[in-house]
Design a protein that fits this description.
It comes from Streptomyces sanyensis. The chain has about 270 residues and is α/β, with parallel strands linked by helices. It is about 30% helix and about 20% strand. It has seven helices and ten strands. The strands form two sheets. Strands 4-3-2-5-6-10-9 form a seven-stranded mixed β-sheet, with helices on both faces. Strands 1-7-8 form a three-stranded antiparallel β-sheet. Helix 1 (about 15-40) runs parallel beside helix 4. The longest helix has 27 residues, at about 15-40. It starts with 7 loop residues before the first strand and ends with a strand.
Length: about 270
Amino acid sequence: MSQDFEPEATRRDAGDAESSRANRGWWDRNADEYQHEHGAFLGDDRFVWGPEGLDEEEAALLGPVATLSGLDVLEIGAGAAQCSRWLAARGARPVALDLSHRQLQHALRIGGDVPLVEADATALPFADGSFDLACSAYGAVPFVADPVAVFREVRRVLRPGGRWVFSVTHPIRWAFPDEPGPEGLSVAASYFDRTPYVEQDERGEAVYVEHHRTLGDRVRDVVAGGFRLVDLVEPEWPSWNVQEWGGWSPLRGNLIPGTAVFVCDRD
């Protein structure tokens, strides 16, 4: 793709291979800008579930903080491994996995002793029953064509009784323009249109793909992946958070949910 070409945004089908290839390339190209823009908010060793700033230190969605010590934890879509560093500081044994080589280079830049693995979430390179917990803060799940394949892989590598917690853009957000101001407060598309959002180059090849699922779809996917849904958290926008992050903002966050966090158990 030529450097002066602005990708075309559209809605069209995009399968597993195209989504994986496009998103690996997008995150490799944009990791530097992402970490520069959001690194201060994310911190080097903080565990936040989304732009609202819901902090695992207080939310304890993986379980009481005091019980994390000694547990094996897989972070999927780890980016620069901020969440994994938080887990390690509390005595857990995390592994940070990401599709993007450049994101993992930022993890190396920040430092720490967390093992880093470059792999696709639909084919986790771990033996059955390797982990006690798995987590993903806006990683992997929105970017794959078949989320059930991810969930089945996560279930496979979890031990019985393990927990899987992941956050995604709240499905209702797909009906609104991705704008933080008043223009983002009016419904502009059908909530029920599952057609993926695709940015493509001048040849029509995808360079970014994000997949929409309704709230009901997400619940059914969790069950189809072999999990029991035990909580669905929709973080409210806190008064201390005055930032805008893409389409997330205090204005919108006080009116409509921006993030959905699914807490799932493997029986």
